Amino acid sequence: MEILEFHEVANLFPLMEGKEYDELCQDIKDNGLLEQIWIHPDGSILDGRNRYRACLQVGIEPSYNYWQNYDQTELEFVLSKNLHRRHLNETQRAIIASKITNTSHGGNRKNQAENFPLEIRQSDAANMLNVSDRTIRTVRTVAKEAPELLQKMEAGKMSAHQAEKKVKEKKRTQERKEMAEKVEAIPFESRFNVFCGDIKTIELTERFDFIITDPPYPREYLSLYEVLARRAKEWLMPSGLLVAMCGQSYLDEIYAMMSEHLEYYWTACYLIPGPAVALRQKQVNTNWKPILIYGSSGYRGKIFGDVYKSEKPDKEHHEWGQSITGMLDLVKQICLPGQNILDPFCGAGTTGVAALLHGCTFTGFDIDMVHVNQSIQRMTEI
Between 74 and which of 107, 181, 198, 260 could a Cys-Cys bridge form, CB atoms 3.0 to 4.6 Å apart? Predict the structure, then answer.
């Protein structure tokens, strides 16, 4: 028996597989071929590929009808036969819509240009297959970025949304890998820059993914939070975040000052190990401090937690210093290796050490040259 080919329009629909195909074979074996197979004038199968395959498999001679409907295109005919007969999900229908968009599946038809365009617009294809334009666009993106997923989508084993998530994850993973590798290629001594400067007057030309800092807490320094937020607006990338530690005593005032310049994002918790710190002016013993996170609606970085832990306090390098373990926990949760971090109150450089240990680049400055030199020494010795 001569094996017939399948018409290109017939191939728009996925072939049956697995249980569905096995059930079709069994039905034809038990009851014979109940619906004939449609043959195109060119000799190919226009409709009935699965029935044809099943007949060959169970050893039953196929019977045929010959399509000569000049009032329908091949595409209209195949769609009319298959859309309601096949239980296709939205993704499978969107794949078909994507295939017929801006393609010529015409054939013999009277007044074809007037009644049914050869070049099908995406919106028309969406209406024909009862799917959204967005799903069609998603299918096209997946087919371009990850064609290996298309077969799973056609077989109904993966939705367009699931495939899109995988494509984004793959792209994100690759981008993050390249970002980390770019920093790894930089000589270690060139990954950090620490200098003396005053946050009120210093000018920086670089923009940063994150500003992570711990300004002084006493009331006489409270205005620095307003300065920090104003300068951070200049120094942050559009997707960047300002992450600033503070005390609880003047928290309401700090919120108000910072919100004048940046968009509030979140408040996180930095757990302080050991005995509670007594805030006598408020009659409160505290075991944590707030971390205020500000930025803009442009943040699209990693998902991060909002509780950071330090193994033990560390005042060896600076009377107001944080521990390496605590700052490293914060940097690891928020930042990705390869990103750049600024600390405009770098003190003895703990944030910089954490940044470098995590594979980030670091820029820091402080008004005290003694602390600047101390920071440089600590980072050089990593």
Answer: 107
